[in-house]
Amino acid sequence: MKHTSILKVAAIALLATGTTSAFGAEFNLRFQTHYTPEQLSGKLAQQFIDNVNVMSGGRVEIEMFYASSVVPSVEGFDAAASGVLDGEMHGAAYLTGKNPAFQFVGDPMGGYDTPWQLYEFLYHGGGLEAANELYNQHGMQFVGWWAGGQETMSSSKPLAGPDDLKDWKFRSPPGLETEIFAQMGASPIVMDFTEVFTALETGIIDGADYSSLANNVGIGLYDQVKHATFPGFHSMPADHVTVNLDVWNSFPDDIKRIFEVASQALALQTSMAFDIANREAVPGLIANGVTLYDWSEEDRAAFRAGAQQAWDSWADKTPEARKLVDAHRAFQKKIGLID
Known about the structure:
By secondary structure, the chain is of the alpha/beta class. The protein has 13 helices and eleven strands. The protein has helices at residues 2-16, 40-55, 76-82, 103-106, 115-124, 127-137, 176-183, 196-202, 213-218, 245-250, 253-287, 297-315, 319-334; strands at 27-33, 60-65, 87-89, 140-147, 153-155, 169-172, 187-190, 207-209, 227-229, 238-244, 291-293.
């Protein structure tokens, strides 16, 4: 009897500490990202996992599958919605075929100058609520954004302002971007990343929308072209953190809050890390003869006005797209980005 009492006391003491390792986590989850563990974003995703694990006291364990090792990136959202995964960390840009509204979660092109404005819209402009009205329809919970900041346009010709976009041939992703630049007189050409270098060498294109300044340096893009916009003005894609809606609804409030706070930390660390990497790349580029163009507020406003026209054509496609566009516009007016 004495021995049994000692065991009971020990078990109660263990539970009181909040330790769960002896019994396993309450929530064992499978997530996927399109990044590799070696990439900066992959390391930041691992930091997110570590934060969730530590803050939950081991009650949540996330197994992350990197480089789209379970399903292709474009199928990650559906895999989580169907229960193959429990969550995913890709981006809404993959989902515009489901509903054009996803464009305004994945990349509200021409909308904001900094990732901080993007986060302000999410948390103080009704963005989180509008996003989840959309995501919940597809069996998913949108938890948060993580954005590296503005991407850079790279070119063999100057890009000092909107006038230089006239007849400028460049690699573009499909969708909203092609409409915006075509309206401004450019000649966007949709092609895969792998075709960019050959297309530049042969003169099929004059430049490319590829990635951030630091990432462009890493792939050797400025060995071929010597002009770039920085800081950028046109595109600020955001990856998302999502959870299967049934799984999310099974979480107690404290676990939900842990995911939300960990997502905010991920956003902060992502934006800081990429801003530092981009700025560290600047001196070397200038030394190697690359000219960087920081568009004026007036020129950015001109591009934003062109983007707004394309926004309207997309907003009219579905009620969800209209709701997100209206929410963005209301917040842009609130902070003085548009009249």
